């Protein structure tokens, strides 16, 4: 268990505010929310506390993402709180789409989730051959290495998409599992965010 002296009183207060916001509203607090809750007027005062929490391993902030704050397992442990699994909103099974603008969090009762696992909701039909339909949710595990045939969540300038990673005679590209769609080249700016390790079936009409 983490030593509770790892956190100052103010840092623990901020961590509790973040957890309460995620649990009650489904979203992390904004800087304005944190300022109001703490009774301060400076964004920098809030940013400094968030920086300390991240440096100590209690949270992770996502650059370029609105409200991009994730509580890591160490943070849940020190609060004696159950783990919340992050869902990064909607991603594409089709062309790239902006999926990481907001972080949405779902409470999984009794389920302990690793810090590097999150959920994304699929939109489109380009991965129906892999059993992923519009409205399904994919469970994604962050990874640094990927192999041929992995179904991955990829990000490019335009947004994110779920596709199969293919290595073919020296060429590497993202392949849809629907013949209506074309392969997507991997550019230097393309980032593979994680490997799809499971799915949650969406509601069917």
Strand order of the largest sheet: 4-3-5-6-11-7-8-9-10
Tell me the CATH superfamily of the largest domain.
Umud Fragment, subunit A
Largest sheet: 9 strands, mixed
State the end-to-end distance: 46 Å
CATH-defined fold name of the largest domain = Umud Fragment, subunit A
Total domain count: 2
What would you call the shape?
elongated
CA-based gyration radius? 19 Å
Q: What is the β-strand count?
A: 11
Provide the β-strand percentage band: 25-35%
Alpha-beta classification: alpha+beta
Assign the CATH class of the largest domain.
Answer: Mainly Beta
Low-confidence residue ranges? 96-113
Helical fraction equals: 10-25%
Describe the secondary-structure layout.
Elements: H1 9-25, H2 31-38, H3 43-55, E1 59-61, E2 69-71, H4 73-79, E3 84-92, E4 104-107, E5 117-123, E6 137-141, E7 151-156, E8 159-168, E9 171-175, E10 184-185, E11 191-200
Parallel strand pairs: 3-5
Antiparallel strand pairs: 1-2, 3-4, 5-6, 6-11, 7-8, 7-11, 8-9, 9-10
Helix pairs in contact: 1-3, 2-3
What does this structure look like?
This protein is an alpha+beta fold. It folds into 2 domains: 4-81, Arc Repressor Mutant, subunit A, CATH 1.10.10; 85-200, Umud Fragment, subunit A (Ribbon), CATH 2.10.109.10. 22% of the residues lie in helices and 31% in strands. It has 4 helices and 11 strands. It has helices at 9-25, 31-38, 43-55, 73-79, and strands spanning 59-61, 69-71, 84-92, 104-107, 117-123, 137-141, 151-156, 159-168, 171-175, 184-185, 191-200. The strands form 2 sheets. The protein has a 9-stranded mixed sheet with strand order 4-3-5-6-11-7-8-9-10, with no helix packed on it. A hairpin with a 7-residue loop joins strand 1 and strand 2. The longest helix has 17 residues, at 9-25. The model is unreliable at 96-113 (pLDDT under 50).
């Amino acid at each position: 268990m983490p030593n509770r002296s790892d956190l100052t009183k103010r840092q623990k207060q901020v961590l509790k505010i973040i957890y309460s916001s995620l649990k009650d509203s489904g979203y992390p607090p904004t800087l304005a929310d944190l300022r109001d809750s703490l009774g301060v007027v400076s964004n920098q005062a809030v940013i400094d506390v968030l920086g300390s929490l991240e440096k100590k391993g209690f949270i992770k902030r996502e650059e370029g993402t609105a409200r991009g704050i994730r509580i890591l397992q160490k943070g849940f442990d020190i609060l004696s709180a159950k783990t919340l699994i992050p869902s990064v909103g909607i991603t594409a099974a089709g062309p790239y789409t902006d999926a990481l603008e907001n972080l949405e969090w779902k409470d999984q009762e009794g389920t302990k989730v690793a810090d590097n696992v999150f959920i994304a909701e699929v939109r489109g039909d380009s991965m129906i051959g892999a059993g992923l339909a519009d409205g399904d949710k994919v469970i994604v595990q962050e990874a640094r290495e990927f192999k041929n045939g992995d179904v991955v969540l990829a990000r490019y300038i335009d947004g994110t998409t779920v596709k199969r990673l293919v290595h073919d005679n020296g060429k590497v590209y993202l392949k849809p599992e629907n013949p209506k769609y074309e392969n997507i080249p991997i550019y230097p700016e393309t980032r593979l965010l994680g490997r799809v390790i499971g799915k949650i079936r969406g509601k069917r009409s």
